[in-house]
């Protein structure tokens, strides 16, 4: 702080005039601003006007560091084995100076083995999505030269493991840490509070609150977004029943050579799960049976392997080790639904 003053003589009929600083931004008066206050005194002696006396006081506005991070929820729905899933955040510099903001992420909840490849991208068009141009531009580790009161939209991007299960959640924090600005395209030094008494220069005061992954007055702030896994929970079952044999026909038939056996394959999706799409069934037949082309293949049946429609494909020798193969796509399997594929073979 710099102060100037001038002593006053004997005073009579005193008048005081003060002048002050420039208008303040929402973040406050800019750091480094010199605020000067001038005062003047006019007076008379013996009824005669004397020279007016003046004095002034000047001080420098210090740097108040404050950062805010907001997650633009709600939770992002994801499926197992998805990549580049997005959480959207707004990062605002509430300081009274331009700062650089280092960006890091932290997994606060969820199984670490089932989420990976955390990256941060700038959301240049502000639509909350990772567009091709943003993906091509590549991830960032800091925001450069963020002006006071400025808000920058960013995206936290992650990959979900194929082992993530329906109902799993992952809580991911974005931390923005204030660093010194001044050199474009370079992350400045981390800002720390000035200790001791106020100096004549620009001191630093850390004014931030506590976020979800940082403490108060540490020059950083954080907010947390959530991924919620919506996965299909499929149960696959294969059963068989003897339809007839050459001796007993259909009366308590046995699994003897020449007997006809029906295979039933069911695909069930649990209640509350996500719909399973692009469902494909592949069944390589044992070498000891022969596919019954006369009966055919039925698909999209119910849980008891009835009510299906003709479909599917038989391919002789197309399976593993040259086995015959049955294959077919099934319709989507919604939560709580079962679809089936069934066909018949003859025991050799």
Can you put this structure into words, describing what you see?
With 348 residues, this protein is mainly beta. The protein folds into 3 domains: 60 residues, no CATH class; 165 residues, Sandwich (Immunoglobulin-like); 114 residues, Immunoglobulin-like (Sandwich), CATH 2.60.40. 2% of the residues lie in helices and 47% in strands. It contains 1 helix and 26 strands. The strands form 7 sheets. Strands 18, 19, 21, 22, 23 and 26 form a 6-stranded antiparallel sheet that branches. A 5-stranded mixed sheet has the order 9-17-15-11-13, with no helix packed on it. Strands 1-6-3-2 form a 4-stranded antiparallel sheet, with no helix packed on it. Strand 22 and strand 23 form a beta hairpin. The chain is rod-shaped. It starts with a strand and ends with a strand. The N terminus is likely disordered.
Q: Characteristics of this structure?
A:
47% strand; DUF11_rpt; 3 domains; signal; 5-stranded mixed beta sheet; DUF11 domain-containing protein; 348 residues; Immunoglobulin-like; 26 strands; rod-shaped; single chain; disordered N terminus; 2% helix; 6-stranded antiparallel beta sheet; EF_Hand_1_Ca_BS; mainly beta
């Amino acid at each position: 702080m710099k102060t100037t003053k001038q002593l006053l003589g004997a005073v009579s009929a005193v008048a005081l005039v003060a002048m002050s600083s420039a208008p303040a931004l929402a973040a406050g008066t800019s750091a480094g601003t010199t605020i000067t206050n001038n005062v003047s005194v006019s007076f008379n002696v013996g009824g005669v006007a004397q020279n007016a006396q003046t004095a002034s006081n000047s001080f420098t506005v210090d740097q108040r560091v404050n950062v805010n991070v907001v997650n633009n929820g709600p939770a992002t729905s994801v499926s197992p084995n998805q990549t580049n899933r997005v959480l959207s955040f707004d990062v605002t510099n509430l300081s009274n100076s331009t700062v650089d903001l280092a960006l890091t992420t932290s997994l606060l909840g969820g199984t670490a083995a089932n989420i990976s490849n955390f990256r941060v991208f700038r959301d240049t068009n502000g639509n909350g999505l990772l567009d091709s141009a943003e993906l091509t531009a590549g991830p960032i580790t800091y925001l450069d030269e963020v002006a006071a009161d400025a808000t920058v939209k960013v995206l936290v991007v992650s990959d979900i493991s194929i082992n993530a299960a329906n109902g799993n959640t992952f809580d991911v924090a974005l931390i923005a840490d204030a660093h010194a600005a001044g050199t474009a395209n370079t992350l400045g030094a981390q800002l720390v509070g000035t200790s001791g008494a106020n100096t004549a220069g620009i001191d630093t005061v850390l004014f931030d609150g506590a976020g979800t992954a940082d403490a108060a007055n540490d020059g950083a702030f954080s907010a947390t977004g959530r991924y919620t896994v919506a996965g299909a929970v499929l149960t696959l079952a294969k059963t068989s029943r003897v339809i007839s044999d050459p001796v007993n026909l259909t009366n308590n038939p046995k699994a003897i050579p020449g007997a006809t056996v029906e295979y039933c394959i069911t695909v069930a999706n649990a209640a509350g799960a996500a719909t399973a799409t692009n469902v494909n069934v592949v069944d390589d037949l044992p070498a000891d049976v022969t596919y019954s082309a006369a009966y055919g293949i039925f698909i999209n049946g119910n849980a008891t392997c009835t009510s299906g429609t003709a479909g599917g494909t038989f391919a002789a020798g197309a399976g593993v080790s040259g086995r015959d193969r049955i294959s077919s796509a099934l319709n989507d399997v919604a939560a709580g639904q079962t679809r089936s594929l069934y066909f018949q073979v003859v025991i050799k």
